[in-house]
Amino acid sequence: MNVLTMKNVKKSFGELEVLRDISLTVEQGQVLAIIGPSGSGKSTLLRCATLLTEMTDGSLYYLDQPAAQSEGGKSVYAGKEQLKQLRSVFGLVFQNFNLFPHYSVLKNLTDAQISVLGRTRAQAEEKAHALLKKMGLDGKADAYPFQLSGGQQQRVAIARALAMDPQILFFDEPTSALDPELTGEVLKIIRELAHENMTMVIVTHEMNFARDVAEQVIFMDGGVIVEQGPPEQVFGNPQQARTRQFLQRYSEK
Question: Hey, which residues does 66 pair with through a beta bridge?
Answer without folding.
Answer: 61
